[in-house]
Amino acid sequence: MSMMANLKEGTYKVVAKGYENNSTPIEITIADNKITAIKPNKNILPGSLEEAVFTRIPEKIVKKLFEVSIDEQAGSL
C-alpha cells in the first residue's frame, strides 16, 4: 500500500522556506490519494528562478507521482 493512501483529500496551505530566509505560501491539493497540484499563492515574476522552482518542479512532482501510482496499480493486478 502506498504511503499516499492515507492522505486526506483537500487543499492545504503551507509555507515553503527558501533561499536567504525567503518564504513562499503555497497550496497543495490532494485528490484520489495523490498530490494533484502544487501552486504558489503569490505573484511570481516571469523568467525568475522562482518561476522555475514553483512551476516546473511542481509539475514534475505531480507527473512523477502519477507515474508511481500507475506502476503501483499495475503491480497490484
Describe this structure in words.
- With 77 residues, the protein is an alpha+beta fold.
- It has one domain (3-75).
- 35% of the residues lie in helices and 31% in strands.
- It has one helix at residues 49-75; strands at residues 10-17, 23-31, 34-40.
- A three-stranded antiparallel beta sheet has the order 1-2-3, with helices on one face.
- The longest helix has 27 residues, at 49-75.
- Mean pLDDT is 77; it is low at 73-77.
End-to-end separation in angstroms reads: 13 Å
Strand content: 25-35%
Overall geometric form: globular
Number of helices: 1
- Output the structural class: alpha+beta
Low-confidence stretches at least 5 residues in length (pLDDT < 50)?
73-77
- State mean pLDDT (0 to 100 scale): 77
Helix content: 25-40%
Spatial strand arrangement across the major sheet: 1-2-3
DSSP strand count: 3
Order of helices and strands: EEEH
Main sheet overview: 3 strands, antiparallel
Count of domains: 1
* Rg for CA atoms: 14 Å
Provide the descriptors you would attach to this structure in a database record.
alpha+beta, 77 residues, disordered C terminus, three-stranded antiparallel β-sheet
Lay out the secondary structure.
Layout: E1 10-17, E2 23-31, E3 34-40, H1 49-75
Antiparallel strand pairs: 1-2, 2-3
